């Protein structure tokens, strides 16, 4: 399919390369960061558009791969032009109506994955959540999505938002906890990589079992002595931010696993 891409950040970079590898053609690429657009365009053999007006209206899809906050602005800018293409965004948290407000042909292609420029991902394993305003566009979008991944799901905007929220807990918050763990051991000159087998085993169990069924730790055991020991240590080290996170999470675990009164 013939596709134009708006954006040159992490998602745009990964998506553009995946689309080209799958046999599609990135016709044009636009970003207000011209240097980034030129770099990505060279990698996918696309033409850089320096204005929205330069975008070819006679293509299959225009994909908006920018930050969530920028999608309404881009949609409004495109609405002043006449496009025959189906306009897509790649956001997990942005409702489809942000696009249907302006375009009769609109949809969503949301890859449920965390992207970094430094690391490649296996697109065949990435869940792709798709949605369109009209059924005939859904067929075309699903056809394109299947060339990228074998894990395609048709979900509406509310369902997609729930997954995005869950992903924040499962990915962003858990990674911040890894960051806290790294800082704690670094202060005592302890090797953070010693936690790697534990991190991997925990993630593995979370994908194989209901997470609540494999919860472990002092909060689950209601072990107030250990909890106090940890909190005292963080207080002594002036780790007030870590202590606050520790307290909130421990309280939530204790509440979640509180044994019923007999």
Task: Outline the structure in words.
Pfam families: DUF2520, Rossmann-like. InterPro entries: 6-PGluconate_DH-like_C_sf, DUF2520, NAD(P)-bd_dom_sf, OxRdtase/DH_put_Rossmann_dom, TM1727-like_C_sf. This is DUF2520 domain-containing protein. Keywords: Oxidoreductase. Strand 7 (about 130), helix 5 and strand 8 form a beta-alpha-beta unit. With about 260 residues, this protein is an alpha/beta fold. The longest helix has about 30 residues, at about 155-185. It has helices at about 10-20, 35-45, 70-80, 95-100, 135-150, 155-185, 195-210, 225-235, 240-255, and strands at about 1-5, 25-30, 45-50, 60-65, 85-90, 105-110, 130, 150-155. Strands 3-2-1-4-5-6-7-8 form an eight-stranded mixed sheet, with helices on both faces. It is built from nine helices and eight strands. It has two domains: about 1-155, Rossmann fold; about 160-255, ProC-like, C-terminal domain (N-(1-d-carboxylethyl)-l-norvaline Dehydrogenase, domain 2, Orthogonal Bundle).
């Amino acid at each position: 399919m013939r596709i134009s891409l708006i954006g040159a950040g992490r998602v745009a970079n990964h998506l553009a390369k995946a689309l080209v590898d799958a046999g599609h053609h990135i016709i044009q690429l636009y970003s207000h960061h011209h240097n980034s657009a030129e770099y990505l365009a060279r990698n996918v053999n696309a033409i850089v558009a320096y204005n929205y007006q330069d975008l070819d209206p006679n293509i299959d899809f225009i994909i908006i791969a920018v930050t969530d906050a920028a999608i309404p602005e881009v949609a409004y800018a495109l609405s002043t032009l006449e496009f025959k293409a189906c306009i897509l965004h790649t956001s997990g948290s942005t409702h489809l109506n942000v696009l249907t407000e302006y375009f009769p042909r609109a949809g969503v292609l949301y890859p449920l994955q965390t992207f970094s420029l430094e690391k490649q991902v296996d697109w065949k394993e990435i869940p792709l959540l798709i949605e369109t305003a009209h059924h005939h566009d859904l067929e075309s979008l699903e056809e394109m999505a299947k060339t990228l991944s074998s894990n395609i799901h048709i979900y509406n905007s509310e369902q997609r938002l729930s997954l995005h929220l869950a992903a924040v807990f499962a990915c962003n918050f858990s990674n911040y906890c890894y960051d806290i763990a790294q800082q704690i051991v670094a202060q005592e000159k302890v090797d953070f990589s010693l936690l790697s087998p534990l991190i991997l085993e925990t993630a593995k169990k979370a994908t194989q079992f209901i997470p609540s069924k494999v919860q472990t730790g002092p909060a689950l055991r209601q072990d107030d002595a250990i909890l106090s020991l940890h909190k005292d240590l963080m207080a002594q080290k002036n780790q007030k931010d870590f202590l606050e996170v520790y307290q909130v999470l421990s309280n939530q675990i204790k509440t979640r696993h509180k044994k019923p009164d007999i």
